[in-house]
Amino acid sequence: MNAKKLTILIIEDNPADTRLIKEALAEGNFGAYNLKYADSLSDGLKKISEEDFYIILLDLSLPDSTGLEIITSISEKNKGSPLIILSGTDNLEIAIKSLSMGAQDYLVKGQFDGNGLIRSIRYAVERKNIEADRKLFEETLIKVAKEWRVTFDAMKEAISLTDLEGRIMRANKTMSIMVNKNFKEILGNTCRDLLLDTEHPQDICPLERAKLSKKREIRIFKTGDKFIECIVDPILDENSNVISMVHILTDITNIKKSEEEIKESLSRIKRTFEQTIKALSLLVEVRDPYTSGHQKRVLETAVAIAKDLGLTGKAIEAIRLASLIHDIGKISIPASILSKPGKLTDIERAMIETHPITGYDIVKEIDFPYPIAKIILQHHERINGSGYPGGLKGDGIMIEAKIIAVSDVIEAISSHRPYREAHTLKESFDEISKNKGILYDPGVVDSCIKLFNKQ
């Protein structure tokens, strides 16, 4: 069976450079591939509009356009093909801007060989594979959701899925028990028909409010001698249009019983929350096995420092959770860079330094009860403003981020890395002591050293 050929588009107007690129590709053991060529931006855009490419190799100096605006033009037509810049300009600022605009790599002509180009292309293909894996994950998630029917029926709350008019399309076993009807009698009816009399005005129904607000609506109503809490969550399509509703009905007549149910519900949510955090933490370790256990060890040190400094329980919990996933942004960094045994190039270091922002973007929309995303964003900031990504100073940095920063440095220096052997704890302490009040918060440094001296 023949391997599928990758189609590579080279957009380059210099025939000599095109020939060198072709020869460089031939040097490496890359497998089967097809090459297509364009000698101008307009020709390249035409080919991109007609065909999907696995990789696009782009020169930033073309007869009909030059500079970074070429990337903008390509991005508007590109259907998702990875983009690698092959430039005659060795300029770090342009390289970083190219990466920020969507390029996967920036190579300087004359400074890479066939193997270097092949590595860069394989990284681009790897990103395509990650996208495919994400799609597979989404499909698997849908399958798992279908298998949750058993759990759905086991839930204590009466849950139903309705259309926009409130007609029940699906309900769980608890719903059947609450209204004392079988599923055939429930389907097609509304909660109002099943539970309420006509004295309850329709316009205060949480379903009607949820259709307008497009967010969760809650109402408590009385039916007979029972008080029922009704929660309605709208389900939105990709255009934010409400397409159906989820009704959750809870009998809250017995306050004591209700409190116990709420506690159990919160306990389940907390366990799920913890499991989600641990799963995110494992993602980083899978990508970078050299730092296996790193985030857990940072957690242990950071929590100990936080307790010693007298931080509140919520702050300590925030530090514990943020420590576990402070490097989650590294999942976007190629594994070849994370485990590189030699010195990083300027471009590679610039890519590494994007991980706090990537981590922030990954978790910022998750409704954590603590400012986890902000802590992740700031954990490489330094009090003199020399850190990244924001160059924050002093009180502009959260205390939680300052604690994780010191814990991260201690653990990183004293652990083995692919490019060096582990240093001693004394060398770690020398680093934070030398930079106390310069890079690291003095109180955090003093607490860290005191705690380790007690051991």
What key attributes describe this structure?
Rossmann fold, Beta-Lactamase, flat, 455 residues, 15% strand, five-stranded antiparallel β-sheet, Hypothetical protein af1432, single chain, 3 domains, alpha/beta
Structure, described:
The protein has 455 residues and is α/β, with parallel strands linked by helices. The chain has three domains: 6-145, Response regulator (Rossmann fold, 3-Layer(aba) Sandwich); 151-253, PAS domain (Beta-Lactamase), CATH 3.30.450.20; 263-454, Hypothetical protein af1432 (Orthogonal Bundle). The chain has 20 helices and twelve strands. Helix 2 (41-50) packs parallel to helix 3, helix 13 packs across helix 17 (372-378) and helix 13 (313-324) packs across helix 18. The mean pLDDT is 83.
Short description:
With 455 residues, the protein is α/β, with parallel strands linked by helices.
How are the secondary structure elements laid out?
Blueprint: E1 6-11, H1 15-27, E2 33-38, H2 41-50, E3 55-58, E4 61-62, E5 65-66, H3 69-77, E6 83-87, H4 92-100, E7 105-108, H5 114-147, H6 149-154, E8 158-162, E9 168-171, H7 173-179, H8 183-186, H9 191-195, H10 206-213, E10 217-223, E11 226-236, E12 242-251, H11 255-287, H12 294-308, H13 313-324, H14 335-338, H15 346-352, H16 355-363, H17 372-378, H18 399-413, H19 425-434, H20 442-454
Parallel strand pairs: 1-2, 1-3, 3-6, 6-7
Antiparallel strand pairs: 4-5, 8-9, 8-12, 10-11, 11-12
